[in-house]
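look at this:
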Amino acid sequence: MKGGAKKTRSSKGQRTESSKFMEELRDFVRTRGADYLKDPNISSVGIGYKIKDNEPTKEISIQFTVDRKVVPEEIESLNTVLIPKSFKIKGKDIPTDVIERKFTVQFRVIPEAQISERKKRMDPILPGISVANIKETAGTIGCIVYDREDGTPYILSNWHVLQGPEGFIGDEITQPGSYDDNRVQLNRMGTLVRSHLGHAGDCAVATIEDRSFAPEIIDLNMIVEKIGDPELGDKVVKSGRTTGVTYGIVTRVHTITKIDYGGSVGEQEVGCFEIEVDPNAPPENGEVSMGGDSGSAWLFRGNGKQPTNIMAGLHFAGEGPMDPTEHALACYPKSIFEKLAISLSPPLKPEVTHGTGFAQNFLKFRVRIPKLSTSNMKKAFVTNGSEVIDYTHFSLALNKVRRFAFWVAWNIDGESIRKLSRKGIPFVIDPRIPENNQVGNQLYVKNRLDRGHIARRADLLWGGPAEARKANVDSFFFTNITPQMDDFNQGNRGGLWGRLEDAVFEDTEVDMLKVSLLAGPVFHEDDREFKGIKLPREFWKVIAFVENKKLKAKAFLLTQSLDELEAFELDRFKVYQIGLTEIEERCGLTFPASLKAADSVGEHLSRQPESLAQRKPLGSLEDIDWS
């Protein structure tokens, strides 16, 4: 024992001495090495084992690498110096070593810590990703469901994920959950609508707001379309936030378990069935489920690992930390669907009849839609011999090459405007038009582009209740959408654009409170391409109204910077008041003569410098000439 202790102390002393020696060498290189690197032939200086006969020895050396290793007689021709055979460092002679080696830039790629896609903010929302009440941590979205009465789409998860002991109906829900991303205001997804904890299950639903959704479960690529009743021996599979895809076998059915939910809730009895790991498809880490998987949908499997479209249960619990076996618990779908009054598909409703398209006789004076130039007509989508596509309260012409609208025309009836929620309304491709003629959701994922309405949603919500609701839904067709930077209507001067319609009502005496509008993007050949799509950087808008029995028209142009989509600098929006003739020239359109005549300041504005950079943008709504 004594000998061992003495040996340990000796080894420790040797290690300390060796460490000190290396520090001395390191200091030498740091202080003297830079001087040597000024030599054009020397590429590096460091500490290494001296090389002899192309093999490293155990002798420490100050090691130099050079572009060319030459005999002393050639030193001068290379404009270099002879490297000493050794350096005296702290009284010790340390040999040098010279190696011929030339360096070029070659980055060493170090993999970053990977954050699972399931734990990031996603748009569209998908089953299988992180979600939680603003007061909770993180669970999983099980599937997309619908209100049994009005068809509102919801996400389905657990009570303890979407509500929890401290939560209440109406609480904000975030995606991802705050455990995965604490920027809860940025990640707000919707609100808690209904929940239940008891014998029927541990379940809850929440709205989907300001984001689209897709029903396919992540990594399973399956949509839940039916619910089933699990039996012993059934093979199942789930896709959860934490463990991803795992496979199990039903081992117990019609079970009631007692679980302590903490807080004021305490122990609760929950009806469920039990699942264990499928021995023929074990998970890599041995875990069939872990914390954060709560809310996952278990699907029945067919042959092998293939999932079906039938839901077997809603995952809500797993084995305790001291339990050597691996099991999971799930609620019966029939019970929770009845308790929450939800369905896997929206209820069928009769088609609502409504007025269609832009009304050209909406005002006392007729406002005709613009005509496309010959070259633009060749690019237009045409159906039934016309380029005009009608929706509720608006119409448009679609550029099938650029895949955005040439123009959108709509009416506002200020006397019958309604306030309707946008909750649960997804952005959708118009099924009447080939999908490859439209830009869908793929453009707007994981960047700062917003799906910007050309015809403002709020402008279209007028008329009878059914008519306004239909206009609300129609506004979300991608044909009425263009890519706009996320501060398009909020950022500094750019905020003017979203308030032009409000301003005409506030600053003029609009007859009958009725307004007609036309707007669209300006297509340039040199528009920036992003994800294979050219993004418009300019937009135009024409506001037509009647004041004192006289038709008036005002035109505006907005520019947005698309230079840095991933690191966008604010205050890059500018709004200009321009003439209608300038829009015609920029866009290949022809407005009716009566509308151009109604633009009292157009002729004056058309004499402005051709370059926008030489013009003064609007600083506020007060700068608009409404005369």
In short: The chain has three domains: 11-100, 119-349, 371-621. The CA atoms of residues 24 and 90 lie 8 Å apart. The chain has a mean pLDDT of 84.
